[in-house]
Amino acid sequence: MGIFLLTTSCENMNDLQSKYTNQKEETYLGKVDSLKTYPGLKRAKITWYIGADPKIEQTIIYWNMRKDSIVRDFVRATPGVQKDSIIVENLTEGTQLYEFRNINSKGNTSLYSSSSVTSWGERFANKLIARSITSQVYVFDSLKFKLSLSKTFSGDSVVYSQIRFTNSHGTENNIRINRTTNSLVLTDFPQGGELQFRTAFFLPKLGIDTIFNAYKVYKAPTR
């Protein structure tokens, strides 16, 4: 009885070893490494590194639960670690999970790498500290609209502001206001006319684009 049990045990062990010995060993390509993302205006820039694996031919980038994707050809320029990047356009404002996978024509793949990617829009810009028009004086006789603006401060990300209005002759005017300018006079401004005012921001350590908050409307008085 003891000999029978020993024989059975050895046979089972051999079957187990044979099973795994006959299996094809799966080979993975090197994975995408050191992902960094930079938000833009309804777009985003993504950078990453590809290791020294010479078998990598393409990188697939997935988002929207892998319903959307981009295939990027990988062209090796150096034998070692190499940086790559892409700008993904036409994105909706917000944050999504992006997944990266290296592949080649032989069917080899890498493990997935992932990162959260954010694209900016008006909702984000409206949360930033914007400039505003703090006082308005309209001079009826000369059709001048005198305006004072809130001051900027260090670290507010304000680049400039914009005023858009149509003068008394029907000509549209677009004025760019430097961040250090705190007052200005609009000439030939019609009674009861409207102006639109907004602020442009740039966040150099975070993003790649200048973004704008929503226009705010101001109106001149009438007699």
Summarize the structure.
The chain has 223 residues and is mainly beta. Helix content is 11%, strand content 46%. The chain starts with a helix and ends with a strand.
Structure in words:
This protein is mainly beta and 223 residues long. Helices cover 11% and strands 46% of the residues. It is built from two helices and 17 strands. The chain has helices at 2-22, 122-125; strands spanning 28-29, 33-40, 43-50, 58-63, 68-73, 82-88, 94-103, 109-110, 113-119, 133-139, 144-149, 158-166, 172-178, 183-186, 194-201, 211-212, 216-219. Strands 12, 13, 15, 16 and 17 form a five-stranded antiparallel β-sheet that branches. A four-stranded antiparallel β-sheet has the order 5-4-7-9, with no helix packed on it. The protein has a three-stranded antiparallel β-sheet with strand order 2-3-6, with no helix packed on it. 19% of the residues are buried.
